[in-house]
């Protein structure tokens, strides 16, 4: 079969790799029908995730058809169409029993495309299939479903739920990339008074408006002043950090009101200053987290009911064999307008950049 193989920083190739097989009784083998590319995949290619060794097939999000299962698998069978979650869960360790699947100590957690071969291939072995794949209704397209593998549960769980968004809140989302846009879409489910999106790129701010932001601000133009004007000088009730750089985190702490919450979703590769000299007296809660995907069944029902605008997050589609081209488009998002890039699925035409 073919797969996208990491060959060290800056090097990857769509090439022949061995077909996966059942190794444990809890495994499922899935024929991949649709995959997407994550910002984390770009971090891997830049050499920022040293645990990923050369020779690894990348990817941790997919939709496909089960073709083989181990003897202990009970919830799916060959022929089933499934969502492959970015998080694998053993179901037995302390963290899995508490629903914290991302912290699994039984051999799961984020392993696909990280510690074992991933989903950006024609077939993938999925460990712990009973808790790590989800049956898909026929009413949900592969393109919509693949967004449930990572960005929607990540934005919802780590941003909206950990930030405790409530009716009537002012919510600021710093970063209007795919995760930030997904946070805007899922925050709306809780009826906040307003959502303000902050970013450097005008096309992404426009996308934020289409997905439900009530106001937008250029990150270079003192967005904390806009938040102050909208809230009578108090600040935002919830600020969601969806970039992962020190400057954006520090901006979030300046925008939050006393007693408010900062929910960090961004993946940070550099230290960020925590200005406790300013924050200690303001009763601020700061949360972080790796997605657990415990919300995936709920979000799947919301997508099936048409309550989440998943099609608006997808800007480009490609056939699976054009993986390298898709990476090029996604890695140059500032030039191409790429948000989410989907390969495979039910459409194979390339959607023009920015058409959401």
From TrEMBL:
One of its GO terms (molecular function) is oxidoreductase activity. SMART domains: PKS_ER (SM00829). Keywords: Metal-binding, Oxidoreductase, Zinc. InterPro entries: ADH-like_C (IPR013149), ADH-like_N (IPR013154), ADH_Zn_CS (IPR002328), ER (IPR020843), GroES-like_sf (IPR011032), NAD(P)-bd_dom_sf (IPR036291). Residues 10-343 form the Enoyl reductase (ER) domain. Its cofactor is Zn(2+). It comes from the Bacteria. It holds the Pfam family ADH_zinc_N. The keyword Metal-binding applies. Coiled coil: none annotated. Belongs to the zinc-containing alcohol dehydrogenase family. This is Alcohol dehydrogenase.
């Amino acid at each position: 079969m073919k797969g996208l193989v990491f060959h060290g920083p800056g090097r990857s190739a769509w090439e022949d790799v061995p077909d996966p097989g059942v190794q444990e009784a809890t495994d499922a083998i899935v024929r991949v029908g649709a995959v997407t590319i994550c910002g984390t995949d770009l971090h891997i290619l830049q050499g920022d995730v040293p645990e990923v060794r050369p020779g690894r097939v990348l990817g941790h999000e997919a939709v496909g058809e089960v073709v083989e299962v181990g003897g202990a698998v009970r919830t799916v069978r060959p022929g089933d169409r499934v969502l492959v979650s970015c998080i694998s869960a053993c179901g037995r360790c302390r963290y899995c029993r508490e629903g914290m699947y991302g912290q699994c100590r039984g051999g799961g957690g984020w392993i696909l495309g990280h510690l074992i071969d991933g989903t950006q291939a024609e077939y993938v072995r999925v460990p712990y299939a009973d808790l790590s794949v989800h049956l898909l209704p026929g009413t949900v397209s592969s393109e919509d479903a693949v967004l449930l593998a990572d960005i929607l549960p990540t934005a919802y769980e780590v941003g909206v739920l950990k930030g405790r968004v409530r009716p009537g809140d002012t919510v600021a989302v710093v970063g209007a990339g795919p995760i930030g846009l997904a946070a805007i879409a899922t925050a709306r489910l809780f009826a906040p008074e307003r959502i303000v999106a902050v970013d450097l790129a005008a096309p992404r701010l426009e996308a934020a408006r289409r997905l439900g932001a009530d106001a937008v601000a250029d990150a270079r133009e003192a967005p904390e002043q806009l938040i102050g004007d909208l809230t009578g000088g108090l600040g935002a009730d919830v600020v969601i950090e969806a970039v992962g750089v020190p400057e954006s985190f520090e901006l979030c702490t300046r925008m939050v009101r006393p007693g408010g919450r900062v929910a960090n979703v961004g993946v940070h590769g550099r230290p960020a200053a925590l200005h406790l000299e300013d924050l200690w007296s303001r009763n601020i809660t700061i949360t972080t987290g790796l997605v657990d995907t415990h919300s995936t069944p709920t979000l799947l029902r919301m997508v099936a009911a048409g309550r989440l605008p998943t099609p608006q997050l997808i800007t480009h589609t490609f056939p699976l064999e054009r993986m390298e081209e898709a990476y090029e488009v996604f890695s140059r998002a500032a030039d191409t307008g790429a948000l989410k890039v989907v390969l495979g699925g039910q459409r194979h035409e390339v959607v023009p950049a920015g058409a959401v």
